[in-house]
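Can't attach files on this board, so I'm pasting raw text. These are the components:
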Amino acid sequence: QKEVEQNSGPLSVPEGAIASLNCTYSDRGSQSFFWYRQYSGKSPELIMFIYSNGDKEDGRFTAQLNKASQYVSLLIRDSQPSDSATYLCAVIPFGANNLFFGTGTRLTVIP
Amino acid sequence: DTGVSQNPRHKITKRGQNVTFRCDPISEHNRLYWYRQTLGQGPEFLTYFQNEAQLEKSRLLSDRFSAERPKGSFSTLEIQRTEQGDSAMYLCASSPVRGLSYNEQFFGPGTRLTVL
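---
Top answer:
C-alpha cells for the assembled complex are below.
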C-alpha cells in the first residue's frame, strides 16, 4: 500500500467553478500535510499546509483534514486557467523527516 | 533571489559517465533534502542533511549515489557510472529546523538529467 494516494485525474472544471482534489494516506500517526502545485516542466511549489483537523483557508484555497478518515483535500474556489497544473499531496508520517508524495492530480481549468 | 537554487538546470550525459549536481538552500535553512522525480510520479526522497550531517538515506540511494554538505551550506549530489534509469528530475528542498515553518520544504528549480 502506498503511503499517499491521489486520484490521478485528469480533472477538468470550467473557469469560475470549484475544483476539489482528494488524497488519502496510510500512516495514522501522520502529523503534517501539504499541497504542492507543479506546472509542467517546473518544480513543486508549496501552496498549502495543514496540521490540525478541520479547514484552513488561504485566499481561494481551502485545505481540509480529517485524521479519523485519513483524508486530506484541497478546494480551489473561482478556478482560473492559471490554476491548470498538477497538484501533489504530500505527508510526513510519524517519525519521518521527509515528504511522501502522491502521484499528483492533473487539473485543467477550461476558459 | 533568496530561494533554493540548483545547478546545472539541465545535464545530458552518456551512460557510464559521472555527474555532479549542486544545491544552494535558503540561507537560514538548516535542513536540506534531495528528491528524484520521474515522469508521471511524485518526487521520491533520496537523502537529507541537518547542517553538515547526513541523517537519512533512502534505499533508492544506491552505492553509485553520494551526497555531501561539507560546511552545512550548499550540497552536492554525485552519480557515478550513470545508467539510463537515472534519467529524472533531481530536486533539492530546504526547511528550517525550528519555528512554525520547520516542516515546510521549499523546492529549487531542479536539475533535469538525461542519460543517453
